[in-house]
Write a structure and sequence with these properties.
Layout: H1 6-17, H2 29-40, E1 42-43, E2 53-55, E3 66-79, E4 85-104, E5 109-114, E6 124-129, E7 133-137, E8 140-154, E9 156-157
Antiparallel strand pairs: 1-9, 2-8, 3-4, 3-8, 4-5, 5-6, 7-8
Length: 159
């Protein structure tokens, strides 16, 4: 079964963006993806929480891929040269969470389109790191620690 093209993946992103700030279906995270697949004619494997072909490496992820998180947590600590610091954390998937990747940078900071997060069923855009890293920029050191797991799926087209 062929993978979706980048243009077709862009249509899945557009499907989610058009619904920003609204509840899609029953508001569950997987419903956003499932309804997008149905609307666009993407193939949905019969297995629950499986969204296409597994992408083995994070470096191969591309916009429109679907992330299936499992007990995922990211903690970020930023230390400034003046001695001040900030901490934040994000969690996804207790036990599971489904989200559409909109973008990802070289440091693993990803933007997702998702629902049923942050005490809201609305479709929303959120950014958080998906890999452990230590980054130093402009006198600031940022430590990112990731736990839990995720599987990346590349949507496919029904033949």
């Amino acid at each position: 079964m062929p993978d979706v093209t980048e243009q077709q993946a862009g249509r899945l992103i557009a499907f989610a963006v058009q619904r920003m700030g609204q509840v899609e279906g029953n508001g569950q995270c997987w419903t956003l993806v499932d309804n997008g697949f149905r609307s666009l004619g993407f193939h949905k494997p019969s297995s629950t929480y499986r969204w296409g072909r597994v992408v083995e490496q994070l470096s191969s992820a591309r916009p429109g891929d679907v992330f299936q998180f499992s007990n995922f947590r990211v903690a970020v600590r930023s230390d400034s040269s003046d001695g001040s610091w900030t901490e934040s954390s994000e969690a996804r998937g207790a036990p599971r969470h489904t989200a559409i990747l909109e973008s990802i940078d070289a440091n693993g900071l990803a933007t997702f389109l998702e629902s049923n997060v942050n005490d809201s069923f609305d479709v929303q855009r959120n950014r958080f790191h998906v890999r452990t890293a230590d980054i130093e920029e402009g006198g600031e050191r940022t430590s990112i620690r990731v736990s839990g797991s995720f599987t990346i799926y590349r949507p496919q087209i029904s033949e």
